[in-house]
Each structure stands twice: as C-alpha cells, then as structure tokens.
Amino acid sequence: MGLFERQDKVDEGVEISVGRPQEPVEEQGVFGATEEGGVNYKTVSWTRASVVLMKAQIGLGVLGIPSIFQVLGLIPGIILLLVVYAMASFSAWAIPSFVKRHPEVHSIADVGFVMGGTIGREAYGLAFMIFMLCVVASGSLGVSIALNAVSEHAICSVGFVAVAIVVVLLLASIQTLDRVSWLGWVGMVSIMSAILTLTIAVGVQSRPAAAPAAPAPWDKNFQLFGNPTWAEAGSTLGTIVFAYGATPAFFNVIAEMKRPQDFPKTAMVCQTYATIVYLAIGIPVYWYCGDYVASPALGSAGPLLKKICYGLSIPALVITAVIYAHLSAKYMFVRILRGSRHLVSNTPQHWCAWIGSVVFCCVIGFIIAEGIPVFSGLISIVGAIFGTVMCIQTQGAMWLYDHSWGAKNAERRKNRSWRYVSLTVWCYFLLIGGSIITVLGAYGSITEVINTYSGKSLTAFSCADNSA
C-alpha cells in the first residue's frame, strides 16, 4: 500500500479515500507491538483513564465557573455551560468513532493529516502544543498563586512559578500514562477537598472576603440575568470552553488504553462528572458571594480560609500541569520517534527524545506563565482561541469528513434518515458556533488581560504578589 493511496476498511460504511498523500495505517496503533524488554505504553484501564481525564478537566476549569455566573447571571451561565457540555459530549463520542476508522491516529495532529495532509498535520500539531502548554502554564501559575497565598508572598512570584515547573518536570517524566494515573487520584482528592471547603466556608460566613467589612452594609447583587459587556461575555465563553479543555487529549489517552473500545465509558464518566461538579460548586459559591466572588474562586472565603483552600489545592494544581506536560511531551516524543524501534525500546535515543521533550514543554510552560501572569485572563484566552478548535470544531469536522464531505462519499447522497440529517446540522452548528465563540472570546479575553495590566504592578516576569 503506497504513500499516495490508502484503502480504509469498507465495512461499517467506511468509504475509500484516494488521491491524497497518506501514511500507512497502523493496525496496532502508533506504538505497535512491544518487544521484549521494551516499554509497553498500552496499559491504561478505562477507570484509570477516567481519573486522569477528570483531573485534567476539573483541575483549573472549576476555579473559574463561579465568575461566569457572576458576569452572565445564573440562568444564562447555566444554559451556556450545558450547551458547551453538549458540544464537548458529542466530541467525546465522535473521537473514538474516528479513531476506529483511522487507527493511525495518535493525536489531534494526525486528524489534521487525515483531513488535510501535511499542512493540516502541522497546523493542528502547532495548535495542540500551544493549547496544552498554555494549560501547563495555567497550572503552574495557579501553583504560584497558591504558594503566595499560603506563605503571604514569602518570595518573588517568579520563584514560585519556577518551583512549580521543576516539580512538574520531575513528575511529568514518568514514562507511561498508566503510571501517571495514580497522580490523578491524588489530584482529585486535593481539588475536591479544596472546593468543598470553599463552598462550605462561603455558606456559613456572613459575607465573602471581598465584601465591605462589617458592620458596613453590603449587597451581593445576585442576578438571574446579568448585563455584561461584549468583552465580559466573550471572556466567559473562553472560560467555559476551557472547563472542557481535556477533550483534545482524548486521542492520546485512547492510544495508551488496553481496550480502546472502552473509551466511551471513560468519556461519559469524565464529561458528566465534571459538569455535575461545575454546577454543584459554581451555583452555591455564586449564590453566597455574588459580585464578590474571586477568580480563582478559592480566594473568596477570607484570609484564613484562602490559605486553607489554596493549601489543599496545591497538589491538584501541580498534577493538572503534570498531566498536560506529560501529554504534550508524549506528542513530541511520538513525532520524533514514530516508525522507529526506539519508540518502544530502552535505547539512548529513546531516553534522550523523552527527557528532551519533557524539558522543552516545561520550559515553554514557564515562559508562558510569566508572560501572561493573569490567571482568569490566561485560561479564557486559551479557551477562546485554541479551545474551540481543539474541543468543538475539529470533532464536528471529523464526523462530516467521514460521513458527508468529499465527492466519493455516497452516504451524503443516499442517507436521508432523521439521525443523519440531525447529526449533519449539529456538526455545522459546531463549526459556526465555535467560530463565534472564538471571535467573541478572543476579544473579551485580550481586553480583560489589558485591563488587568493597566495601572497595576503585575507585569510579565513580575515579583508582585499574584494572589492579592
């Protein structure tokens, strides 16, 4: 089978695609068969994959959810969250279906190659790396905020980010995702302890930390419907998408599962649990704090509880950065050694490529964290500019590519069932809706960062206290 012709499996209605540069299909996945003494990457169970993805999903997104309700109002905030949940859930369904049809896919960059050849692969690969490394930066920035809060700004904030990156580098160097998965359990306990402590604290306190001090009167200004500016609304859209930012990592996780066919269970548990947590935490925190909710939300309950909540969250913030650093480094590692025996053999080339990839990802994450040291602004920029493409639009395009696009696709001409028509309309909605989110979100997020910088001491590579 040549490089310029590939025949997909024609069972289950899969069509033949001819006339575009193609790489050989890897029936055993990108890692192939493991030789004796080599590294076996395909060892992740569906339960461990669920924990890794839940931790990747909830780790940072939940900290921005209360501020979404504060800007949009409770009802629009809930509606938009559920709409994005529906979009992300479709993506979670579409990904394993696409991988089954195209077993050579290891990452979203390979999706770009299937749909757009070499240009598509490089464009998607670059977007994937930027997105993942920005999340590494967000997690490291969150760690520095937590350490500043707990220590009352004991050292320069740049030093705290550096400490976070060193720890992330060491843990992300763990070679297989199965071994990383135990960190997911630690991270889940950590973040759930922190946000439950926060929720209980704001519920029993008479007023949030940012409200006027007693006995001065205060109004939380709780709103069912907010009145945001375009910039404020756009920024929240990016934050909502970021809350489902683990979606592009689904490809990489499937590639390391013992039974890839179990992934739909993993995706269902991950997406549903994350959404329940977002609503169960976001609504009460906004109800009790109103306009005085902090971003990240862990700073909403007063100086003492702020230290406690941030202290509890430090492992979770570190592990979020670890997971994304590991997955981005694994993408680089596979790109470097794909098709070579060094990919699964314990050779010097294998280890140089792996350690070099981890170091590169952590260094870039450090630079991004220090270049945009505004937590809410950074996660909304990442969600708006890269999240919609990575989490929503590509998955719609994947389904259309397999079922509708292309002159040789007979299904478009023959299938008139309500299911097919509904899915086609839905996928085009994902493409159009994602573009709107990208434009509004990018505008709002950039505006927020500019306003945050304006007249304040917080600048790039600043030593200022970023937890204030």
Automatic annotation (TrEMBL):
One of its GO terms (cellular component) is membrane. It is a multi-pass membrane protein. Keywords: Membrane, Transmembrane, Transmembrane helix. The chain crosses the membrane at residues 58-88, 123-147, 154-176, 182-204, 267-288, 308-329, 350-369, 375-400, 420-443. It comes from the Eukaryota. It is found in: Membrane. One of its GO terms (molecular function) is L-amino acid transmembrane transporter activity. Its main location: membrane. Residues 43-413 form the Amino acid transporter transmembrane domain. It holds the Pfam family Aa_trans. InterPro entries: AA_transpt_TM (IPR013057). Belongs to the amino acid/polyamine transporter 2 family. This is Transmembrane amino acid transporter.
